[in-house]
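INFO batch 0412 | record 1 of 1 | parsing
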Amino acid sequence: MPAEELLRALELEGTAAGAMLAPGGCDERVPGIAAELDRCVDRLVAGVAEQPTPYTQTMYVDLLMGLTLTAESLRARHSGDGASAVRHAAKASECLTRVSMQDMRIG
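INFO prediction complete | emitting tokens
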């Protein structure tokens, strides 16, 4: 897994979380952030095979799912579907909570 790509994805996830928590709704950057998260996931998906154990492969998939669900949450919030945005954000958080970066093979 390219470490730079992972760092970019995590940076975007943090930006997305900030955008979702911003008072007054989402700003105009939200669709672009969601699209960039999708592109990061597309580039990172091959990293599943690089993980040394089934346990770390599962964590890696949780990472990818968390990023994907974050993008979905952004899109839902941007389109005015607050309930779906909250549901996707909660599921993203569950996935990302299961990830331990020190256990995965990065780089």
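INFO post-check: DSSP finds four helices and no strands in the chain.
INFO record closed
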